[in-house]
């Protein structure tokens, strides 16, 4: 079952602000404010994750997806997601 977290995500390729990330063992699903799927990333791509300041950079299929960690809005949710994938 997927767990939803509310956070803002900025994808370098799509140039859009995302609203929700659903995550489960199989991967991540990025959705916009209207509930439309924008992108899906398989969990095996998470082995390539890089941390740079307040950003989490995920290279996948020749694109870079950047999750911006906002201390006041979503830090707790991002930490839960990172712990779920054993990245912290």
Defining key terms:
PH-domain like, 1 helix
Quickly count the domains.
1
Shape: globular
How large, in whole angstroms, is the Cα Rg?
Answer: 12 Å
Average per-residue pLDDT, rounded, comes to 77
Given helix and strand content, the structural type is: mainly beta
Count of DSSP strands? 7
Q: Quote the beta fraction.
A: over 45%
Tell me the span between the first and last alpha carbons: 22 Å
- Largest beta-sheet details: 7 strands, antiparallel
> Biggest sheet: strands side by side, in what order?
4-3-2-1-7-6-5
Element string (H = helix, E = strand): EEEEEEEH
Map the helices and strands.
Blueprint: E1 3-11, E2 17-24, E3 27-31, E4 37-42, E5 50-52, E6 55-60, E7 63-68, H1 75-84
Antiparallel strand pairs: 1-2, 1-7, 2-3, 3-4, 5-6, 6-7
């Amino acid at each position: 079952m997927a767990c939803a977290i509310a956070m803002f995500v900025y994808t370098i390729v799509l140039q859009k602000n995302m609203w929700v990330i659903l995550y489960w063992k199989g991967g991540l699903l990025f959705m916009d404010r209207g509930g439309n799927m924008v992108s899906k990333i398989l969990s095996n791509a998470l082995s390539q994750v890089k941390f740079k300041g307040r950003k989490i950079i995920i290279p996948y299929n020749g694109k870079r997806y950047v999750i911006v960690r906002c201390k006041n809005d979503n830090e707790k949710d991002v930490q839960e997601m990172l712990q779920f994938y054993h990245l912290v």
